[in-house]
Amino acid sequence: MTRLEGEQVLMRIFIGEGDRWEKKPLYEALVEMLRREGMAGATVLKGAMGFGARSITHSDRLLRFSSDLPVIVEVVDSQEKIDAVLPFLDAMLEGGMVTLEKARVIRYFKV
Fold this sequence. Notes:
Layout (H helix, E strand, L loop, with lengths): L5 E11 L3 E2 L2 E2 H11 L6 E4 L2 E3 L5 E3 L10 E8 L1 H14 L4 E9 L6
Antiparallel strand pairs: 1-7, 1-8, 2-3, 4-7, 5-6
């Protein structure tokens, strides 16, 4: 059983749905890398609308189909494990943003 209790780190990786890594969607490549590196888990969330540094709005509205909707990959794990994957992110991300914040974890999960 693996426990994540107490203070951990929440990492959010903000990218676009159209971003790629080695011919596959970047969010898929990130989840595969995070799994391979033994992270506790990862979740991919697709946004309905957003804009980034270039102020280009991307939306899923019927009349404004976008192939680059906002995507967030969330991971909660120890500071040490988060720090260990940051070099991978440096290599994989050409844009986007990564945020780190403290998270109080009150549950655990079975492996």
